[in-house]
Design goal:
Blueprint: H1 3-12, H2 15-29, H3 45-58, H4 61-67, E1 69-70, E2 73-74, H5 81-92, H6 102-115, E3 120-128, E4 136-144, E5 150-159, E6 165-170, H7 173-176
Antiparallel strand pairs: 1-2, 3-4, 4-5, 5-6
Helix pairs in contact: 1-2, 2-5, 3-4, 3-6, 4-6
Length: 177
């Protein structure tokens, strides 16, 4: 079936055709939201980075996905299947990002865990990051990579809309290159 011609036919039907197409695409877009969320630990930015590093050492992808995200929330909590379908539809026309599949989230968390593998680490002080439009902190973590090298890895932690602190950036390039 030629999806582009089908889509144009649906769009030509007016609002009812577009709504029907959106519901169909939404139903096909996501089976269900990933079910890998883990409760976030209590505490401020330093505690969240510490929990993320400990989860990475254990390769606990569910905990990592519950601590990593954006202002909208953790990457593990993407919403209902309908909302995921609408986001996928919006991503096709450039109105946002699609939902990530649970397998894709797990692969991304595994990649971060492998890069962050460490013999030990030391937390630096949290420094406020300005200009983000929401509370954010930057924390340098001194990671002992095991061959006598200690690498300073920057983490940026933000306060999400629901009040939780989440890791939003990890300077993995310092460990990979």
């Amino acid at each position: 079936m030629d999806w582009s011609s089908w889509w144009r036919r649906q769009a030509g039907r007016g609002a009812s055709g577009c709504c029907g197409a959106a519901v169909l695409v939404g139903a096909l877009g996501c089976g269900r939201a990933p079910d890998i969320a883990a409760p976030a630990p209590e505490g401020g930015p330093a505690r969240i980075v510490e929990a993320f590093m400990d989860a990475a050492a254990r390769r606990d992808h569910a905990v990592m996905a519950g601590l990593f995200g954006t202002g909208a929330g953790p990457v593990a909590e993407q919403g209902s299947p309908f909302a995921c379908g609408l986001r996928r539809l919006g991503s096709w026309i450039g109105l946002g990002a699609r939902c990530l599949a649970a397998a894709e989230i797990e692969l991304r968390m595994d990649l971060m865990a492998r890069v962050l593998a460490h013999a030990s680490y030391r937390m630096g002080a949290a420094v406020e990051v300005v200009g983000r439009g929401r509370p954010a902190s930057r924390i340098e973590v001194a990671v002992d990579v095991g061959d006598g090298r200690v690498v300073a890895v920057p983490f940026v932690v933000i306060r999400a809309d629901d009040g939780r602190w989440l890791v939003t950036e990890v300077g993995l390039e310092r460990l990979t290159g």
